[in-house]
Design brief:
Elements: H1 2-6, E1 17-20, H2 26-34, E2 39-42, H3 47-57, E3 62-65, H4 75-88, E4 92-94, E5 108-111, H5 112-121, H6 125-130, H7 133-136, E6 150-152, H8 169-177
Parallel strand pairs: 1-2, 4-6
Antiparallel strand pairs: 3-5, 4-5
Helix pairs in contact: 3-5
Length: 178
């Protein structure tokens, strides 16, 4: 479903799956490969390294990151964030840094140069697992961040109270405990 929805975006040149080498990901990798979508397999925990290596394998200059827990992604929203990235001459653009879209429509766009620099500079396990906090500065109160030109993308109305994301039972329980 996610790949079908991403295929509706007009500003994407290619769609790649970046999953882990963990055998648990074998069925997903085989299924996506069967759809004709390139699959890159890398480190399970070091997602920053995996994304950097995947981008290199794809010969990408710009990376659009959509996570697997956003199966209801909208191609028009993807196109909007990609357009804002290019128009803003940014290193990074996202509709998730200043929330106004529903959680689950998250789109991140960044340069390969930014990704590779983060991959070279970051040595914190949390930052390596979560790929972009070093670039977007969202965890600046807790972790070191790099210096990047970031472009927030917001919706005219605030729908940030809506959740269109795929959660596990633990994540749902954690949200209710807060």
């Amino acid at each position: 479903m996610l790949i079908r929805r991403l295929a509706k975006a007009r500003r994407l040149d290619e769609i790649w799956l970046a999953c882990s080498i963990n055998p648990a990901d074998d069925p997903l990798a085989e299924f996506v490969d069967g759809l004709g979508v390139p699959v890159f397999r890398g480190d399970e925990v070091d997602a920053l390294k995996r994304f950097s290596e995947c981008a290199a394998a794809a010969a990408a200059k710009v990376v659009v990151r959509i996570t697997g827990d956003c199966p209801l992604i909208d191609g028009d929203v993807v196109d909007e964030v990609v357009a804002a990235f290019h128009e803003g001459d940014a290193d990074y653009a996202s509709n998730g840094t200043e929330r106004s879209f529903p959680d689950g429509l998250d789109v991140e766009v960044f340069t390969l140069e930014s990704l590779d620099r983060a991959n070279a500079e970051v040595n914190n396990d949390f930052l390596r697992e979560h790929v972009t906090p070093y670039i977007n500065g969202r965890c600046a109160d807790t972790f070191p961040v790099g210096k990047y030109k970031c472009q927030p993308v917001t919706h005219a109305a605030n729908f940030s109270h809506l959740r269109w994301t795929l959660d596990t039972a633990n994540e749902i329980g954690e949200k209710f405990r807060r």
